[in-house]
Amino acid sequence: MGSSPHVNFLKMVNRLVVNNFFAVVAVTGAAAMLIRRDIVGQMPPVHALMVLLLMMILAAKMRRRREVYLVEYGCFGPKSCYRTPFATCLEHAHLMPYLVDEESVAFAMRLLERSGLGEETCVPDAYHYMPPDRSLRASREEAELVIFSAVDDVFAKTTTVIKPCDIDVLIVNCSIFTPTPVFADMVVNRYKLRDDVKSVNLSGMGCSAGLVSVGLAKNILHAAPLGTRVLVVSTEILSSQYYVGTERAMLLPNCLFRMGAAAMILSNSPEEDQARFRLRCVVRTVTAAHDADYRCVFQEEDDKGNTGIRLSKDLATTAGYALKNNIAAFGPLVLPASEQLLVALSLLKRKLLSGRAKVRLYRPNFRTAFEHICIHAGGRGVIDEVQHGLGLSDDDVEASRMTLHRFGNTSSSSVFYELAYMEAKGRMSKGDRLWMISFGAGFDCNSVAWECVKPKQPGDADGPWADSLARYPMQLPEIDKDM
């Protein structure tokens, strides 16, 4: 069983005290000196004043952390030649009768129709071969295409401020495919990054890895010298992962996942007023201690030896449970005092009336803390679950649904396609607050809060939405819940 919300709140308070231990000690020491006049009285006035000033400076220094900024970001924009409309999916499935039986084909098509994906989602060249090319060469080619396109995009936007030689730290995440040398080395080689660049390659974290990378970058930048720059690249490579068996739970990734990548540059300096967003906080929740959650997204072989990713039928419910625990830690950091008070009062009421009446806990209104919300476009069911759990309107989840429809589940990069949608629509203003939510294997739930410092300027390119923005938002068809 997970911890109750009030227990999580107490843990959060404890973390704040521990993380600011020296500041607490300094302030306590200063207060003690003011109270113990006999101690102060034995010291020369100048010395006493110097001690108090030093303690106050220490307190301020220990409490102050370097701000972290998202300087710029870019996304891979697939060309139309990579499109895979439903008719193409059906035709290709029928061209592989020795791999997939007719019943599995029909099941996969029903999944595709219910998925929330549109006719313009894209897959790599490898998927357009019959049978799909699952070779190492095909995977490398896909990786070079999506990663280099995203990194080229972000450097093109920052060329007057940041060049490849200015990058101090590199973080690349890709969950399933991890070649040797790793993708981090591939980026270093392509862009000729400095010999002393610190590089990290993350794998196996699924769709949550993009925001995990942001959290890692934040921790590095808090401790790094002022002006340090981190390049984060987030992707998922599909070519080698096409499942050719008939297990229904393992056919889901074939239907949902599409090619994509995002690159971002973060810094602990506002980069001469060029930074786009300020990072407010990052909260990660891992529920892997629960066996069902641990196996919710699981790579394994079927009974015929075909490797694939098995997605549990309880995926949406698991995501909802992880989000609930994540919010218990995230809420106190971002919600206004009025909302936190209502939550505390409902907890108190439930405790006082325990056994006598059923008391529903107050559901905080996160629209009081954020103007925009990006929910990982993992699938229609995941977006539905989060929308219902948080009490969000259709407008609140528009970016998530439209991203899923246009690009499919691009895994760890999806929330940045959603941010690009909001900015392309001109909906982001200076001072607006943004909440990114992602889910991934483990099971993981991550929340990242941003504040807009510099909105996209009118006339700037619309990134991955440049060729389709005018068609969105569109009315999505109603789907019968029964299979």
From TrEMBL:
GO MF entries: acyltransferase activity, transferring groups other than amino-acyl groups
Transmembrane portions of the chain: 12-35, 41-60
EC numbers: 2.3.1.-
Swiss-Prot/TrEMBL keywords: Acyltransferase, Membrane, Transferase, Transmembrane, Transmembrane helix
Leading EC class: transferase
GO cellular component: membrane
Xref: InterPro entries: 3-ktacl-CoA_syn, ACP_syn_III_C, FAE1_typ3_polyketide_synth, Thiolase-like
Domain called Beta-ketoacyl-[acyl-carrier-protein] synthase III C-terminal: residue spans: 371-451
GO annotation terms (biological process): fatty acid biosynthetic process
CDD domains: CHS_like
Domain FAE: 61-352
Residue runs in coiled coils: none
Annotated Pfam families: ACP_syn_III_C (PF08541), FAE1_CUT1_RppA (PF08392)
Pathway: Lipid metabolism; fatty acid biosynthesis
Sequence similarity: Belongs to the thiolase-like superfamily. Chalcone/stilbene synthases family.
Protein name: 3-ketoacyl-CoA synthase
Underlying gene: LOC100837673
